[in-house]
Amino acid sequence: SQQGEEDPQALSIQEGENATMNCSYKTSINNLQWYRQNSGRGLVHLILIRSNEREKHSGRLRVTLDTSKKSSSLLITASRAADTASYFCATDDGSARQLTFGSGTQLTVLP
Amino acid sequence: DAGITQSPRYKITETGRQVTLMCHQTWSHSYMFWYRQDLGHGLRLIYYSAAADITDKGEVPDGYVVSRSKTENFPLTLESATRSQTSVYFCASSEKGNQPQHFGDGTRLSIL
Predict the structure, then answer these.
(1) For A14-64, how does the pLDDT look when each residue is reduced to its tens digit (9 = 90+)?
(2) Cα–Cα distance measured from residue B49 to residue B27, given in angstroms and rounded to the nearest whole number
(3) Which of B37, B10, B32, B29 has its CA nearest to residue B21?
(4) Does A42 sit within 8 Å of B97, measured CB to CB?
(5) Which of A14, A81, B1, B76 has the fewest CB atoms within 10 Å, measured from its CB?
(6) Which letter does DSSP use for residue B75 in this model?
(7) What's the CA gap between B44 and A102, in Å, rounded?
């Protein structure tokens, strides 16, 4: 079963616009992570937010976490064509032994 | 160079054959993972290992066997391949189970 579910499944925007992806999860977590996957490649870790944090920034990335709603969002500002990729959220289930990945959001940034 | 490497990158085999996918990491991470990625299912955990000689089942372990005799290697074996095991397989490693994972570039496996 999927712990994290991303929304939307696909998103297409123009270069320079902001992209927002959402993730919902079911059980209590220690942390939530976001990953990017370029076509034909492995996943690359982007950012980790702990359960006691509400917001975190890394360059053009902004992640928020609402544990009361069991949801997170990833905002990519001033998007570039190179941001075209699939984005996944991943949560632990509190066991600290593994992560569960969602199905991902396919982001296309048009030049 | 430090990293995680998977081999082969591509593999075609027939149903009933045994096939082994290799994974090697140079960080000395304690944890290693095997996932399969299928359209519509995202990544699903097959097996993971917290340390050498310690392995645990993930979400979809049936039909797969793993071993971890050395910290740096974590091979995945399909003992008798079936068409439903056609997928892209990713290996990953991390210092702890819920910390950021480093992924290989995957093995695309086709079973005819």
Answers:
(1) 999 999 999 999 988 999 999 999 999 999 999 999 999 999 999 999 999
(2) 15
(3) B10
(4) no
(5) B1
(6) -
(7) 9
CB-CB contact of B52 with B72 (8 Å): no
What pLDDT is attached to residue B27? 92
Q: Per the structure block, which two tokens stand in for B84?
A: 């439903």
Collect the ranges in chain B with pLDDT lower than 50: none
Over the stretch B65-86, which tens digit does the pLDDT of each residue have? 999 999 999 999 999 999 999 9
Mutation target for A interface from B36, B37, B43, B89: give the one with most A CBs within 10 A.
Answer: B43
| φ and ψ at residue B84, rounded to 5 degrees | -70, -10
Q: What is the average pLDDT score of chain A?
A: 93
Contacts of B21 in chain A (CB under 8 A): none
Q: Is A110 exposed, middle or buried (0-12, 13-18, 19+ CB in 10 A)?
A: exposed
pLDDT of residue B2: 63
User: Min CA distance, B47 vs chain A (Å)?
Assistant: 10
Window 46-105 of A: residues touching B by CB (8 A cutoff) are: 48, 88, 90, 92, 95-104
Chain B residues lying within 8 Å of A90, measured CB to CB: 101
Confidence check: pLDDT of A94 > 90? no
pLDDT of residue A3: 63
Question: Whats the size of chain B, residue-wise?
Answer: 112
Q: Which residues pair with A105 in a beta bridge?
A: A87
B93 contacts B18 by C-beta, under 8 angstroms? no
